[in-house]
Design goal:
The structure holds 2 protein chains of 2 kinds. By secondary structure, chain A is mainly α. Chain A has 10 helices and no strands. In chain A, helix 3 runs antiparallel to helix 4 and helix 4 runs antiparallel to helix 5. The mean pLDDT of chain A is 76. In chain B, helix 10 links the parallel strand 4 and strand 5. In chain B, helix 4 packs parallel to helix 12, helix 7 packs parallel to helix 10 and helix 12 packs antiparallel against helix 13. Classes of the chains: A mainly alpha, B alpha/beta.
């Protein structure tokens, strides 16, 4: 184990980094097929990560139920039951090749289940759950599942997104206060950009879009570029630390 | 309460009041449209010009990143993009890394009925959902079939004639992103293979996408509902986004008025010599 941790874990990332970087920047033909396999590994690993997420979700909510955590355990039951129900309903209609089945039905269903569970938390959980559950169990051949996805999930998602508009206005009213010069400048710039994006701004004063476009362009570009460059340099430094074996955070543990 | 000044009352305004105001100012222009003029921004025009420059038979990859929650912002633009590209005789490959991409595909088919009249597999293909972000985009650039062995409906990719001509980045005339997810296409398709990248961002992505637009990494950009409305205007097909713009105007005006009202107590306090 010590050899694996001290040597193999140190040199494997270095090798992978070198191959991917060489393939990207120098397009060395002999490395192309190896890089291709490595990229497929990355895609597969990202799929596996979802499975871990599901285990984590079940563990957390299972624990909530086990401990009868006040104010949470009922929601956790709903989440778990929703997960199992949607998972089963989604996997009943399996067809096609094995990979297609696993990818289209298991993975997609898992993702959709996780998202739908979040929606259930936010909206009137019990009513929504019962509705979807009953509709799903009346006919498990797929039509009800599709209906629930198309009409419940879609509506919840759109409602969640639309309701952010109310929160933005509310938070703006309570927080956007010109308590000093900096805040006042930010407020004025924000209002100009708001009027730039809305046609009514141009109707009120034709200068709004001119100033607003300047703020969105030359006004903010330097700052944003600096942020992107810093992130880019940070990534290069991180890559250098991985290549030289000094970055071991992703091994886990504190060694 | 009775002794409170108007400014003190404004400072503690019940949020339900402005929630109801928002509902009213959204609903009013939708019921009775005002029809304020929409000026097309250069970035949107550049996107539209790029779409109209596509040649017959060119293959375009469209990444539907948006979930159903962002339909209001991006679906209008996607409809215009699809119609414009179909008018040019382009062949379209749709993919998406949002879990509900199949819903967006269904909705797009409802809004662009002629998608259903095309020969599926030859003129248009829906490969469906993918994951893996940059790694997936990088792999698609060399071999689409390794990420999508079959399309969304389970048809093996080798049975789709269009995909025989479009298995790597160099086979594509352009990539269009929807809502987000632009960086992977810039880094994995634009920079190494020179594939033109453009698309639509949700409104809050406008400033984040500006550096890529300025540097030429993306050749065009439509931002939010406004961008979609501009595309509808350019294409001469006013639809939902154009209608929504009046509501955008009224809510934005209310937004600014509320901010001014919220700041009146501070200004009043400063005039009185308070800290």
């Amino acid at each position: 184990m010590s050899f694996v941790k001290s040597t193999a874990f140190k040199y494997i990332p270095i090798l992978i980094f070198a191959i991917i970087i060489a393939d990207y920047f120098f397009a060395i033909a002999s490395l192309g097929s190896i890089a291709e396999v490595l990229r497929q590994f990355a895609v597969v690993i990202s799929n596996i990560a979802l499975g871990l997420g599901v285990i984590s979700l079940l563990r957390i909510h299972g624990r909530n139920v086990q401990r009868r955590l006040e104010g949470r355990w009922l929601y956790s039951i709903v989440t778990i039951i929703t997960f199992v129900t949607v998972f089963i309903l989604g996997t009943i209609n399996a067809n096609g090749a094995q990979y297609t089945w696993a990818f289209n039905h298991v993975y997609t269903t898992l993702q959709q289940t996780m998202y739908a569970s979040t929606g259930f938390f936010i909206v009137v959980t019990i009513i929504t759950f019962v509705t979807v559950f009953i509709l799903g169990t009346i006919n498990a051949n797929g039509a009800q599942y599709t209906w629930a996805f198309n009409h419940v999930y879609t509506t919840l998602q759109q409602t969640m997104y639309a309701s952010t508009g109310f929160f933005i206005v509310s938070s703006a009213y309570r927080a956007f206060r010109a308590r000093n010069i900096d805040a006042a400048l930010l407020l004025i710039a924000g209002c100009i950009v708001v009027f730039t994006n809305a046609p009514i701004g141009e109707v009120i004063w034709s200068g709004f879009p001119v100033i607003g476009d300047w703020l969105l362009g030359p006004g903010q570009l330097p700052g944003y570029r600096v942020l992107m460059l810093i992130a880019g340099f940070g990534t290069i430094v991180y890559a250098y630390r991985v290549i030289t074996g000094n970055e071991r955070g992703f091994f886990g543990g504190g060694e | 309460m009775a002794n409170q000044t108007i400014f003190e009352r404004l400072d503690k305004l019940d949020r339900r009041i402005y929630y109801w105001l928002i509902v009213i100012v959204i609903a009013w222009p939708l019921v009775s449209p005002i029809g304020l003029p929409i000026t097309v921004k250069p970035s949107t025009r550049a996107l539209y010009d790029g779409l109209t420059a596509v040649q017959e038979g060119d293959v375009v990859l469209i990444d539907i990143f948006m979930s159903v929650s962002t339909w209001a912002e991006c679906m209008g633009g996607l409809v215009v993009e699809t119609n414009t590209l179909l008018d040019r005789g382009a062949r379209l490959v749709y993919i998406g890394d949002s879990v509900d991409v199949s819903r967006s595909w269904d909705r797009l088919n409802e809004l662009v009925p002629r998608l259903g009249t095309l020969e599926y597999g030859t003129d248009v293909v829906f490969l469906g959902y993918y994951t893996g972000q940059d790694a997936a985009a990088s792999q698609m650039a060399v071999d689409m079939s390794s990420i999508f062995p079959a399309d969304h409906f389970g048809t093996p990719i080798e049975d789709l004639p269009l995909m025989r001509d479009a298995n790597s980045a160099t086979d594509y005339a352009m990539v269009l992103f929807t809502a987000e997810g632009e960086v992977k296409w810039i880094q994995q398709w634009g920079a190494p293979y020179g594939v033109p990248v453009a698309g639509m961002g949700i409104a809050m992505k406008g400033s984040a996408l500006a550096p890529y637009l300025a540097s030429g990494d993306i050749f065009g950009l439509a931002v939010g509902v406004r961008g979609a409305a501009e595309l509808e205007k350019l294409a001469g097909m006013p639809a939902a986004a154009t209608t929504t713009m009046d509501a955008i105007s009224s809510t934005h005006l209310l937004f600014v008025i509320l901010i001014v009202l919220a700041n009146l107590p501070i200004i009043f306090n400063k005039i009185k010599g308070g800290s």
